[in-house]
Amino acid sequence: SYPAAVRLFEVGARDGLQNEKQEVPTAIKVELIERLVEAGVTAIETGSFVSPKWVPQMADTDKVMAEITRKSGVVYSVLTPNMTGYEMARASGATEIEVFSGASEAFSQKNINCTIDESLDRFAPVMEAAKQDGIPVRASVSCALGSPFKGEVILPAKVADVSKKLYDMGCYEVSIADTIGVGTPFKTREVLEAVANVIPLEVMGVHFHDTYGQALANLSAALQMGIARLDSSVAGLGGCPYAPGATGNVATEDVVYMLNGMGIETGIDLNKLVETAWFISGFLGRKPVSRVANAMKAK
Ligand code: HMG
Ligand code: MG
């Protein structure tokens, strides 16, 4: 059955901006994060401590973390692929970190330069250190509904296997990601059910890219199962530089509009969120891709 309330995890400042061609100044990132929090966002990805050679757009994450005015009760999370990233995250005062692996071997090689098993080995000391430091760790499982690489088939059992390993390592949330937005509702349910067979539904989250316009429908399938942890990105920003064909995440304002209509609590002020979508899109020199941001602006 549907949850009464959800936790929205805002990924716009990380997944959203990591893929932008133009440089986004630290001050704009800081303003984006602060506006989102002002709109009611309580969990937000502020950046990644990854190699600046691999993802130059996130190279100023330490500055972003230093410059944001933090609000109590808000989770400021960063991606950390290894111990180097973890040390930087801890130094920056991140209140949560995220490890990321996936169900596609080809994507793992392209994205983090190692096999899926090797990525889990790299996370082991990160999990250990985070436990000692009292920093909660969330995990992301990429390519759960399809691989960006031709011919590679992703089995639900593989998604479940990686999810279970991450959960058993101590991750408090496992976010199942449709990196390239190819899923459809029945397929989504099949994969999510395979995962729900091996880890508790309460710790499962979903992270849908909207490449084929299926994200809201897939989200609805996840909600129907009772999943209450949703990733989304203001203005529908997003993509992964190492996943050919991936476009933006499901837009936070589209999700909030849908949930408001369903009577599912988000704690977010839709008007402020839409203003924020126009703010960041204005900086990027385009309109937000989301229907709701455009519909509400037109009024
Ligand atoms: P590597 O080259 O194999 O790493 O990259 P290495 O350990 O051999 O180190 C090479 C150099 O990188 C060294 O520097 C290290 O110090 C440095 P050098 O000696 O050459 O000057 N280095 C680092 N620097 C900063 N931060 C670090 C770090 N680690 C090593 N953490 C590595 C391996 C994982 C570092 C690299 O592949 C990488 O940074 N990948 C990140 C890719 C990424 O961020 N992708 C996007 C995020 S995932 C995503 O978007 C999907 C998601 O949204 C869910 C979904 O939609 O599917 C989450
Ligand atoms: Mg993503």
UniProtKB/TrEMBL annotation:
Coiled coil: none annotated. It catalyses: (3S)-3-hydroxy-3-methylglutaryl-CoA = acetoacetate + acetyl-CoA. Belongs to the HMG-CoA lyase family. This is hydroxymethylglutaryl-CoA lyase. Keywords: Lyase, Metal-binding. The keyword Metal-binding applies. It comes from the Bacteria. CDD domains: DRE_TIM_HMGL. It holds the Pfam family HMGL-like. The gene is hmgcL. The keyword Transferase does not apply. Gene3D superfamilies: Aldolase class I. InterPro entries: Aldolase_TIM, HMG_CoA_lyase_AS, HMGL, PYR_CT.
